[in-house]
């Protein structure tokens, strides 16, 4: 469970203050996929980065499975962050390292010994069906393959939360479906609580259980995706209503109980 409690993030630039996230409270159930949508500049990415304190909120708290991250000192926060994987629109891979080395690096930062690093990195690449690309450099991989390496890198430390910032914005529609299928399967099989920020409505419709709509830094609407098929239900916001068109069809797998879920 992720509890975002009254979180605000205020940026100060050249003496001017700007509230990017405005008193947002949101409860994200353990093992669910939470979508966050909104127009450009609504504060989605900032809120996502607030969850792992990549962007420390100006006020409010973020509690992940009972641990208040905002109350931790640097050392404890570093340790907790290994429980929270993140993937980005532009993959953020190191181009001078192979796929395997990219994944190994996150394990190194998490303090995993050299021998286990290699094995766990290989297993993580296996989950995204890229074992055969272990020795390829990112320059030799397609966009979808790069994002799958990034997913493997995020998964290798066995996180309980996966944060996804526009995970499919830089890939074509067919690759989008494949990346989403991996995210959906991983969520179903490993029970990882997943938060996806996107401006692509079809992404939310394909994978999310719940959706939160942001406008001007504030959370203005929340509903379950299942509500969309309820007779008479219509989202209150314009962006919420955009969800009623466009589709990607995925094979959604039934969830395993989280306590039974293991990665490696
Ligand atoms: N480090 C920063 N310093 C100053 N302003 C910032 C900073 N980061 C974000 N902002 C501003 O905060 C607002 C929200 O940005 P954010 O990236 O969270 O929005 P978003 O909803 O993710 O937008 P997009 O969909 O375009 O990525 C924007 O107006 C942005 O310019």
UniProtKB/TrEMBL annotation:
<dbReference type="Pfam" id="PF00005">
    <property type="entry name" value="ABC_tran"/>
</dbReference>
<dbReference type="InterPro" id="IPR041701">
    <property type="entry name" value="MetN_ABC"/>
</dbReference>
<dbReference type="GO" id="GO:0005886">
    <property type="term" value="C:plasma membrane"/>
</dbReference>
<dbReference type="GO" id="GO:0006865">
    <property type="term" value="P:amino acid transport"/>
</dbReference>
<keyword id="KW-0547">Nucleotide-binding</keyword>
<comment type="similarity">
    <text>Belongs to the ABC transporter superfamily.</text>
</comment>
<keyword id="KW-0067">ATP-binding</keyword>
<keyword id="KW-1003">Cell membrane</keyword>
<feature type="domain" description="ABC transporter">
    <location>
        <begin position="2"/>
        <end position="241"/>
    </location>
</feature>
<dbReference type="GO" id="GO:0005524">
    <property type="term" value="F:ATP binding"/>
</dbReference>
<dbReference type="InterPro" id="IPR017871">
    <property type="entry name" value="ABC_transporter-like_CS"/>
</dbReference>
<keyword id="KW-1278">Translocase</keyword>
<protein>
    <recommendedName>
        <fullName>ABC transporter domain-containing protein</fullName>
    </recommendedName>
</protein>
<keyword id="KW-0472">Membrane</keyword>
<keyword id="KW-0029">Amino-acid transport</keyword>
<dbReference type="InterPro" id="IPR027417">
    <property type="entry name" value="P-loop_NTPase"/>
</dbReference>
<comment type="subunit">
    <text>Homodimer. Forms a membrane-associated complex with FtsX.</text>
</comment>
<dbReference type="GO" id="GO:0016887">
    <property type="term" value="F:ATP hydrolysis activity"/>
</dbReference>
<keyword id="KW-0813">Transport</keyword>
<dbReference type="InterPro" id="IPR003593">
    <property type="entry name" value="AAA+_ATPase"/>
</dbReference>
<dbReference type="InterPro" id="IPR003439">
    <property type="entry name" value="ABC_transporter-like_ATP-bd"/>
</dbReference>
<comment type="function">
    <text>Part of the ABC transporter FtsEX involved in cellular division. Has ATPase activity.</text>
</comment>
<dbReference type="InterPro" id="IPR050086">
    <property type="entry name" value="MetN_ABC_transporter-like"/>
</dbReference>
């Amino acid at each position: 469970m992720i509890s975002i409690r009254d979180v605000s993030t205020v940026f100060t630039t050249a003496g001017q203050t700007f509230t990017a996230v405005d008193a947002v409270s949101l409860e994200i159930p353990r093992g669910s996929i939470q979508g966050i949508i909104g127009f450009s500049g609504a504060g989605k990415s900032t809120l996502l980065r607030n969850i792992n304190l990549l962007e420390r909120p100006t006020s409010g708290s973020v509690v992940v499975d009972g641990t208040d991250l905002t109350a931790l000192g640097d050392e404890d926060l570093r340790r907790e962050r290994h429980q929270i994987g993140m993937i980005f629109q532009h993959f953020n891979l190191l181009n001078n390292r192979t796929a395997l080395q990219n994944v190994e690096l996150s394990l190194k930062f998490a303090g995993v010994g050299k021998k286990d690093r290699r094995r766990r990195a290989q297993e993580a690449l296996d989950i995204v069906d890229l074992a055969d690309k272990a020795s390829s450099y990112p320059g030799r991989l397609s966009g979808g393959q790069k994002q799958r390496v990034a997913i493997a890198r995020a998964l290798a430390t066995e996180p309980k939360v996966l944060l996804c910032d526009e995970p499919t914005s830089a890939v074509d529609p067919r690759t989008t479906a494949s990346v989403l299928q991996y995210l959906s399967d991983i969520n179903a099989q490993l029970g990882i609580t997943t938060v996806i920020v996107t401006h692509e409505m079809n992404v939310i419709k394909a994978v999310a259980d719940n959706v939160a709509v942001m406008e001007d830094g504030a959370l203005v609407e929340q509903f379950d995706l299942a509500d969309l098929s309820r007779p008479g239900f219509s989202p209150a916001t314009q962006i919420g209503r955009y969800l009623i068109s466009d589709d990607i069809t995925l094979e959604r797998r039934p969830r395993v109980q989280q306590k039974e879920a293991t990665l490696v």
